Amino acid sequence: MLNKKAQLSETMTWIIATLVIIVILIIFIFISSSFAKVKNLTTQDLKLSSEGEDVDLFEFKTELAYNLTSEENKKIIDNWRKQNA
């Protein structure tokens, strides 16, 4: 029981480390939500059908990425599609 200072410092180290991790996670969540707001998509962008039709999510994701990319990247994708057709 002579080493109470060592036990206290170890406990304080873990408390501080836990607080640092929590702060980093909060910052990460805040930055992620900020980026999500920048890429705000409307229902017209999504083109989801409410008529009960089945939606191919892979095709939907591919079209969405293609529509959001730059013109230079669209040319690259179109050339690749022509080569693999």
Q: Can you give a write-up of this model?
A:
With 85 residues, this protein is mainly alpha-helical. Helix content is 76%, strand content 0%. The protein contains 4 helices and no strands. The longest helix is centred in the first third of the chain and has 35 residues, at 4-38. The radius of gyration is 25 Å and the shape is rod-shaped. The protein starts with a helix and ends with a helix. The relative contact order is 0.05. The model has no long low-confidence stretch (mean pLDDT 78).
SSE order and pairing:
Layout: H1 4-38, H2 43-46, H3 57-68, H4 71-84
Please tell me the overall pLDDT.
78
What is the N-to-C succession of helices and strands?
HHHH
- Alpha-beta content class: mainly alpha
The radius of gyration is 25 Å
Head-to-tail CA distance between termini: 77 Å
Number of strands: 0
Number of helices: 4
Beta content comes to under 5%
Helix content: over 70%
Overall outline: rod-shaped
Give the low-pLDDT segments: none
Largest sheet: none
